[in-house]
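Team,

Forwarding the record for the chain on the shared tracking sheet. I've put the sequence and predicted structure together so nobody has to dig through attachments.
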Amino acid sequence: MQLIFEKSVVNGRRALTLPEMNIAEYKLPEYREEIDLPEVAEIDVVRHYTGLSKLAHGVDDGFYPLGSCTMKYNPKLNEAVAAFEGFTAIHPTQPKETVRGWTDALNMLSDYLCEITGMDAITLQPAAGAHGEFTGMQLIKAYHKYNKDFGRKQILVPDSAHGTNPASANMCGFEIVTVPSNSEGGVDIEALKTLVCEKTAGLMLTNPNTVGLFDRNITEICEIVHKAGGLMYYDGANLNAVMGICRPGDMGFDVVHLNLHKTFSAPHGGGGPGCGPVGCKKALCKFLPLGVYGSKLPKDTASKSIGKVKSFGGNFLVALRSAVYIVTLGADGLLDASELAVLNANYLLALLKDKYPVAYDRICMHEFVLTAENIKHETGVSALDISKALLDFGIHPPTMYFPLIVHEALMFEPTETESKETLEYAADAMLKIYDKLYTNPQELHDAPISTAIGRVDEVQAARHPVLKYNK
């Protein structure tokens, strides 16, 4: 496909004619060199960007089972409300009495998220999940400092954790202590008991965890950490499996961050704005960032604040989309979403497990992890090859090689919005790929063959990216 610069014809073509000015003309200084912009007609612009859109794959195009950070379907109602002029035409420095709709929406969302998570207050400022982790770690750090417990320098992190967990804790000055998993894919309780000590500031935990399993020992884990004087941090990446069923606050967690793009359907990916709210129990509310919304906010909030982590109220229109999603579904609908997410994952797993080995063969939650380790040893076909082959079926690949505790991992998360027919189509594609493992493995090494771009040398692309177009 040609670049827009390659379609340019230097003869004055343009896609837009500006209206005549009704104000005095202001002459800018003369440019010393010509601005190299493409000269194309409107139809060329339309066809160019329409063509580009056809090369992209997203949730509006087909099945997108990327595990642990899934691109959930974005209801168009959310987009319509977020486009209301009453929300898009306001400025955050306006007098509060002129933006009541804005503040009411943020207060409403904050209250809903507190109720869903079992927290006492929440901040909508963090711009993404990892930013939320950083904010949550700052709250824990401020808590121990306030209590003059300066020796608590360690954060416990399971070996199955998202990579952002240890990174966020380390950025806040904590030492990372890895907690091993047990044979069931959960936290090794006996190992945890030996690792907690007077240096323990807290434990970061995802539940369900990154292998898609609910830790049966969660209350005991919280008790062990709390008894040692530490706090419990909930990575909310997988809340969409238990929303409306159980709450992190009731499990024993003190701090939680949420990924609105995943659990609450705000758009995700492409480098755009995100929102990673952070909630906490009453004992930590005084440390929350300045400018927190919500009617449940204790009076002493912000007296010992960690300061702002984002300007104004955060990325408002992203948060607004999630507020619309929550209001539209209601309590019963949120429960249905969680139950369907779990049902879909277990149905797809049941269709695949006879051919593809499962990392932990038990009932999963919203996602599951297959392992192609033995397949690779027997056929030479890797998890990467299987993922690339799925592209030829119009399916986005699952998450590959994560979590690190599973070799040749393939993590699937179908979400609650996919139909039984879509799941069966995906399973059929995986079974057709399986048949080729032993009959035509070279075809899988060459995949994909039907996409606009074939197999990419990803190592060279990462080490020597071409970021600039040269004529």
